[in-house]
Amino acid sequence: MLSKRIIPCLDVRDGRLTKGVKFKGNVDIGDPVDMAKFYSDEGADELVFYDITASSEGRGIMLRVVEEVASKTFIPFSVGGGIRNVADMRAVLLAGAEKISVNSAAVRAPEIISQGAAAFGSQCVVVGMDVLKVPVTLEIPSGYEVVIHGGRTPTGMDALAWARRVQELGAGEICLNSIDADGTKEGYELTLTRLIAESVSIPVIASGGAGKPEHMADALTQGLASAALIASIVHYGEYTIRGIKDILANQGIKVRQVW
Predict the structure, then answer these.
(1) What is the C-alpha to C-alpha distance for residues 175 and 203, in angstroms, rounded to an integer?
(2) Among this protein's residues, is 180 annotated catalytic?
């Protein structure tokens, strides 16, 4: 059995680490480079770095910050936000990232997934999905809708259908974020997570809602996720990566421990 991964998420706006609740009310909480190094040293399995306003502002990602973060870490590193084409993907990889995450751009032009997979390999292409629970309709039979531009723009797309399609297009992984759970610290959206994880064969990262290690255990077991993305509970010092992994290991969940 592969080890489950614990992945801190670094949301960056204007070069600073930020955090909100349900994609709103973001506040400045520090320097992303310092935090990235701290989490790498603490034993995080990977890092995710999102430039959260790049897509909505119609600009490219801040490569300087990517380079600085990559220079201070020694674990796999995924970057998203403002990536519009294969040239942007290449620039991010050359800046030091191991993976590229596409979200809004993939919805607008799905061929970016297959183009990226062909150019760099599926293992480099992560599709981020920001998902909102909505009434069940003919267009959205799962009851979960894909939303883009940092939660600002509904797409009318069914999340389950989109997850299956991105796998067909060559994505190597899905990072699945529940907008309803994001930043609430009340637990992951397990119904959504399991629905997607059962329907695709590529790894699914559960995102949105972690408030305690037990929430991560639920996502990794009941939700069938391959990894758990975390933010608030480590950004604010409530838990450490080491402490979280100890708790998960004591519950029989296989995690990578390096100390």
Answers:
(1) 9
(2) no
Which of the residues 11, 45, 88, 182 is marked catalytic? 11
Known catalytic residue at 246: no
Q: Which of 33-37, 162-166, 208-212 has the highest mean pLDDT?
A: 162-166
Q: Of 45, 88, 130, 182, which is the active-site residue?
A: 130
How far apart CA 29 and CA 12 sit, in angstroms, is 10
User: Using one digit for the tens of pLDDT, what is the confidence trace for 81-138?
Assistant: 888 899 999 999 999 999 999 998 999 999 999 999 999 999 999 999 999 999 999 9
Cβ contacts of 55 within 8 Å, gap of 6 or more: 81, 82, 103, 104, 105, 148, 149, 150
